[in-house]
Each structure stands twice: as C-alpha cells, then as structure tokens.
Amino acid sequence: MIYFDSAATTLQKPPQVARAVQSAVGTLTGVGRGGHRAAMRAAETVYACRALAAELFDAAPEQVIFTMNATHGLNIAIRTLVPQGGRVVISGFEHNAVTRPLHALDAHITVAGRRLFSPDETLAAFEEALAQGQDAAVCTQMSNVFGYVLPVMPIAALCRRYGVPLILDASQAAGTLPVSLQKTGARFIAMPGHKGLYGPQGTGLLLCAGDARPLLFGGTGSSSASQEMPDFLPDRLEAGTHNVCGIAGLLEGLRFVRARTPQGILRHETRLLRELLPRLRAVPGLRVFSGERQGGVLSFTVEGMDCEEAAALLGRHGAAVRAGLHCAPLAHESAGTKEEGTVRVSFSAFNTAEEVHTFARLCKKLFAPAEKPKFPTCY
After folding, report:
1. Which end of the chain is less packed: N or C, by CB atoms within 10 Å?
2. What are 225-232's contacts with CB under 8 Å, separation 24+?
C-alpha cells in the first residue's frame, strides 16, 4: 500500500515506538501513584518525554501538558481565553477543533485571510481585526487541507503589539516546521502526538505560557487534601491517570524527530511534493492546489468525479488518501471547494520518490479521460 494520509495519522512509525508501547504495558503503572519501581519508571518516562518536548518546542518542562490530542489542548486554550460571547479572530483555514468550541461559546468570530497561499492578505486581515480589539486570536500554522503555511511569526508579532493572546494550532506543523513557545510569544500551542511526531493515537501536547483553566477535574497525585485543582502546571491540567503507554511511544517518536530534525523531514516531504506536482498537473481533468508557502500536504479535485469516489478508487488500487472536507469546512469555503471537497495527499518521513511516481501513474490511469478512437475520414 502507498500510504499518503499522514496529515490524518502517520501509519508508518519508527519501530521503536511500537516496542516502547508494548514494553510500557507490562512494566509501567501510574505517575504519582506510588513509590514502587513500576510507578517510578513511569514517572521517569513521562518526565523524559516532557523534557524532550520542551527542548524541541522552546518551552520549560512544566509548560508541557499531556493531552489526548490537539483537539483536547485547543479546547483547554479556548475555554481559558474566550468568555461566553467573546470576540475572536481566526484564520480562514481553521479546523473544526477550533471553530466548534468557539461556536459552543457563541463567540463573535472574525475570519481573517481567505485567499489561499496569500500570506500578505492573511497578515493584513489579521492586523485589521486585531486593531479592533479581540479576546484572543487563533491561527493554524499549516492548513491540514492545502498545506498552506501561514505567516505565524508576523501574526504573533501583531498579537503582541495589540495585546491579544495567541493560540497556535501546530497540528500539521509539529515535526516539520519550527514551533517555538518563546519566539512566538503564544499563550498556547497545541499539537497531536500521532501525526508529525510519530507517536501513538491518543497522545498530544499543549504548551502553556501562563495559567490555564482546567477542562477536567480529578486526581493528580499532588495536593490531594484540597478539593481545588492544583494551582501549578502541569498538574493543574493533567487530571486522572496519564496515558503512560502512549507517552512512552511518543517519547520515541520525539527522539526520531530530533534525530532526523524537523528541517530534514520537511526537506524530504517538500522534495516529494515537487516530484508529484508536475505529474499531477499533467493529468487532464485534475485541478491541483499549490503555492510557494506549502508543506507536505496538497489537495486536488477530479473533473466530473466526486472526491470520495476518487479516493475510494485510489484505495482499491492500493493508494491511501483522504477525501471530503477533512473536518475543515472553513478552509474549503475559503478556497471555494466547500461544495465538492478535495482529495488530499500528505507525506511523512517514510514515503519515497518511487511511491510518488507510482501514484502519479495511477492517477493518470484512473482519471485521465480516455482518448476517443480515431477513424479514417470518409468522403
């Protein structure tokens, strides 16, 4: 199988990730729930993962919160900063993990930047909205649909200028693009463990630059006599037993990313993108979405064919892609593809140029209009 759906979940993991999860099942217990060897080894593993994430993302270890996924972290961040009926500016390429919590709060949402691969327009729209006063700004670092890399550093600078706290969604960026809590000055940065960090599903990270409102309440292994959640991080946001097995796998995923380097993985993915783009553009009937500021994700549509049908057809021929709205209808609305959706291709460190070439040939075979038979002219 050619697996080109890593923007959803990286299927191919470093083998040490699975080994770590399997080992943890039989050797590690809960953090802060005992002084015996299994509990202490669990605490060491969890702290090692926390410390490595802090190193990679320019944070202090206590600012690294373990979550179930990026959605979990974004809900914490949004609930902390946005009051009921509050005012928020977001980019035109946000995921439902951002827009649904905001709608649940009846927030007044300003959408800034609706043109695909147009960072200047995005930046100008953010400045206009920020100047009007907002409770928070939310911006994805890379569109999960189109791979558009948004100008987050200039947006972060504008947020600091206007005194608006920034929530950064690094779901598609973590593991390939620079992600820095210190350099952005973001209040929160959320990311999943199961995409570009090569960890298991059910893991995620939230970087917190300040206090946060707990989403869950319960035991933390600390301050147990109090009926209030601890007032210090990370305990304040980590109620209940940690996903120690998942975190053990995530630790190995982070080690893989550190060894390969995010820059090295990005170079690999963009090389594959450059290999694929001209080959897809050469297929009649395909509309391919691409631009200068693009990571290892791209979308296309097939003339006269539903995107779900196209993806299913590719799947039957051994190519795994995703089709539809990708849980990001706002991004499709911005790009003008909300009615039909797109077929999405996304890479990882484990994909190869040979797979790209095979996939391009497959697209040509399946989607290029058949040539009409030529008959001799009769007089």
Report:
1. C
2. 232/62
